[in-house]
Design brief:
The complex is a heterodimer of chains A (255) and B (442).
Chain A (H helix, E strand, L loop, with lengths): L3 H77 L3 H16 L9 E2 H19 L3 E6 L8 E2 L3 H12 L8 E10 L2 E8 L9 H20 L4 E7 L2 E9 L4 H8 L1
Parallel strand pairs in A: 2-4
Antiparallel strand pairs in A: 1-3, 4-5, 5-7, 6-7
Helix pairs in contact in A: 1-2, 1-3, 1-5, 2-3, 3-4, 4-5
Chain B lengths: L5 H6 L6 H12 L2 H14 L1 H28 L6 H8 L2 H33 L4 H18 L1 H31 L1 H11 L9 H19 L2 H9 L5 H12 L1 H14 L7 H11 L3 H35 L8 H24 L5 H7 L1 H16 L7 H16 L5 H36 L1
Helix pairs in contact in B: 2-8, 2-11, 2-12, 3-4, 3-13, 4-10, 4-12, 4-13, 5-6, 6-7, 6-15, 6-16, 6-19, 7-8, 7-15, 7-16, 8-13, 8-15, 10-18, 10-20, 13-14, 15-16, 18-19, 18-20, 19-20
The chains are: A alpha+beta (255), B mainly alpha (442).
Chain lengths: 255, 442
């Protein structure tokens, strides 16, 4: 038999239930459009992100053939000059370079990987230039696991050769320096090459730097920048971007 | 304003969201039966009978959200339930289910007609046919001629009036009388209502779940709404409708407790008369009448409109391929008058109680449950034995009905269709394997 207390509770439920129902329906009517609007905005943001990612990947893919083209030209010039030994070593270095082909889907890679990748290109160039080429590379150990958009260093090095060192008579100096200041990474690529006089930025830096600029903008927006300064003694390119670490690597290091 | 196309007549001009979807479903499912049968089940099976009645409807609507999602994934665009069945059944099975659908829809209309007749008898001293005639005229005009746009236009007002009555009337009574006298009165005059573990109550709840599931899953209007709600909002709309719907039968049950705590009663009509005597404030009385009228007309209108849409789109269209949209709409108008007239005559000459009516059709809905689930959750077209199992189960359950109780015949009906489907599926499987084995041997 139902007690008086139980009966009271039931009656309370019977009376309160439609009030709750009406409030729920009213809430739905008032907020449904707003929820839809928020959902649409969220969807828009996700689409925008996907679009940016697609643009970024496209740029990543664009730069690779560009670099390959230049490297093949280097190898071709070695072949034309009948420098067989250097040619064989260049091809070995080139095959090593291809072995480290980047994964196109990864927007950021560790700096160590980027340096290693560029090193293969520098090996090929060292063969061409011989003793004339002096390379000075500096990178603190703690920065080796920091993340960087792929092909940045490689493109800058490639530009140094293409626009400066190629035409240089005598000793060709290339200095690559990474350093950190608080939460920012700095990369300086300095060469003593002869800079051809140009009128506009895009013409001067070419497709490679334009690509770097776009990718940095997409990934870090206004927190990254490229500064180029050039005079008779050479060219200095400075790239600045925020310090980002791979969480998995960080966790591994802490363990 | 006349709809521009038949699709607009059936589905309205735009896809609806969650809010309007819930209003539309509440307009369909808060019915004359909800107002009258829920208290009837309470006085027959105790306080928990009313709760059981509310629960079985809410659970059924909630479960329909899963089915609805599955259906819309398989068949995103459609007008009526018939369109979906056409893609899942062979012609024989399709026509069997269409006939059952038409019969069950007519039955639903008849039940609403009976509720309207109860209301008319309660309200007016004039002969029954006068009140009923105006009721049917109103329904045919707003639903049959107005189309879905008009139905949804009126539905908001109908649901608001139903909510107002469901909130204000019980609140008014319990504040006025207090709970203690009501409890004492029920204990004195109807102590059986306070018994919790009544054997019949569990029979009622379990049989009710079978009937409720069948009724909600096999309802033309629910399917109709399913195809007009935005696809991503389908599950939430049906689940929330179930949750909100439950509040109505609970509220109406408490209302009728107020009437019977001062004495006995003979039938549902005497409870209504008792209620009229209790309601001394004109505002509350008008609110109750408005609520009852809204519940009955909204359900009748929605069901009439869905039935007409099904007949024009799925029964008449295959025979007359070159009908223009305007001809189809004119056909729908004509059908609404015909069906309205038919139900009017049937209501005038019959007078079973509402709960009897609900369980009278219980065998049909219970038998349809297993075939319906098999159709929705199978892949591709389903074999004819599935709809045939429903027919066999309905026929056999009606044959054995005189020898067993109402509840037992409902269970039998549900179990029979389920067993036939299982046996036929096993046999088909063995047959296919045997054929495969034979081909391999040759």
């Amino acid at each position: 038999m139902l007690s008086y207390e139980g009966f009271t509770l039931l009656i309370m439920l019977f009376i309160l239930a439609p009030i709750m129902g009406a409030i729920a329906l009213l809430f739905l009517f008032v907020f449904e459009k707003r929820i839809d609007l928020l959902e649409n905005k969220n969807k828009e943001i996700r689409l925008e992100q996907a679009l940016q990612e697609a643009q970024y990947n496209k740029l990543n893919q664009q730069i690779q053939p560009h670099f390959l083209f230049n490297t093949l030209n280097v190898i071709l010039s070695l072949a034309r000059l009948n420098r067989t030994t250097e040619l064989i070593r260049a091809l070995e270095a080139f095959s090593q370079f291809l072995k480290f082909k980047y994964k196109a889907s990864e927007p950021l890679i560790p700096l160590a990987q980027e340096i290693q990748y560029t090193q293969h290109y520098l090996d090929i160039q060292s063969l061409r230039f011989g003793d004339r080429l002096k390379i000075d590379m500096e990178c603190p150990d703690q920065l080796l696991i920091a993340l960087v958009p792929p092909f940045i260093l490689q493109t800058l090095v490639e530009n140094s050769f293409k626009h400066g060192l190629e035409k240089k008579v005598g000793e060709a100096l290339l200095s690559i320096r990474f350093y950190q200041d608080s939460q920012t990474i700095y990369l300086e690529v300095i060469d003593n090459g002869l800079m051809v006089k140009t009128t506009s930025f895009t013409e001067k830096v070419g497709h490679g730097l334009d690509n770097i600029q776009k990718r940095l903008d997409l990934y870090f927006s206004n927190r990254a920048q490229i500064i180029i300064s050039s005079n008779e003694s050479g060219t200095k390119v400075k790239v600045v971007w925020p310090l980002v670490y791979d969480k998995r690597v960080e966790e591994g290091a802490s363990e | 304003m006349r709809p521009r196309s038949f699709q607009e007549y059936v589905q309205g001009p735009i896809q609806i969201g969650m809010g309007l979807g819930i209003i539309s479903l509440l307009a369909r499912w808060v019915t004359g039966t909800t107002i009258l049968s829920s208290p009837e089940s309470m006085v027959k099976y105790g306080v928990f009978g009313g709760i059981g009645y509310a629960l079985m409807g809410a659970i059924a609507l909630f479960m329909f959200s899963f089915i609805g999602r599955r259906v819309r994934q398989d068949f995103p665009v459609g007008l009526t339930m018939g369109d979906y069945l056409k893609t899942r059944l062979h012609p024989l099975g399709y026509w069997i289910l269409i006939v059952i659908l038409v019969l069950t829809s007519l039955h639903t209309l008849f039940i609403q007609g009976m509720a309207a007749s109860t209301l008319c008898q309660f309200l007016f001293d004039t002969p029954l046919y006068v009140g009923l005639f105006f009721f049917f005229c109103f329904c045919v005009l707003f639903a049959g001629f107005g189309g879905l746009k008009f139905i949804h236009g009126v539905a908001s007002f109908q649901v608001i009036s139903m909510f107002a009555a469901a909130i204000l009337i019980p609140l008014y009574f319990f504040v006025k009388e207090g709970i203690q006298p009501v409890y004492d009165g029920i204990r004195l005059y109807h102590p059986y209502m306070l018994v919790i573990n009544k054997y019949d109550l569990w029979n009622f709840i379990f049989a009710g779940l079978l009937v409720g599931f069948g009724q909600f899953f096999f309802d033309l209007t629910s399917w109709h709404r399913l195809f007009m709600i935005e696809i991503k909002k389908v599950p939430l709309t049906f689940s929330l409708s179930g949750l909100i719907w439950i509040t109505f039968p609970l509220s109406f049950s408490s209302l009728f407790i107020m009437v019977i705590f001062t004495g006995g009663f003979t039938d549902i009509h005497s409870i209504l008369v008792g209620l009229a005597n209790k309601i001394t404030t004109p505002f509350i009385f008008i609110l109750f009448i408005l609520c009852a009228f809204s519940a009955i007309t909204s359900t009748f209108g929605a069901c009439l409109h869905s039935l007409i849409s099904l007949i024009v789109a799925n029964i008449l269209e295959p025979f007359q391929t070159k009908k223009s949209d305007q001809q189809k709409i004119r056909m729908a108008y004509l059908l609404s008058i015909l069906i309205g007239g038919m139900v009017f005559v049937a209501t005038l000459f019959n007078s079973p109680t509402l709960l009897e009516l609900l369980f009278y059709s219980g065998n049909i809905y219970s038998a349809l449950l297993a075939p319906f689930l098999a159709i929705v959750f199978s892949k591709g077209k389903v074999a004819n034995f599935i709809p045939i199992s429903a027919v066999l189960a309905i026929v056999t359950s009606y044959i054995i009905q005189p020898y067993v109780s109402d509840f037992q015949s409902i269970w039998f009906s549900g179990l029979a269709s389920f067993t036939i489907i299982v046996i036929c599926t096993i046999l088909t499987f063995i047959k296919t394997k045997w054929r495969f084995f034979k081909t391999k041997l040759n």
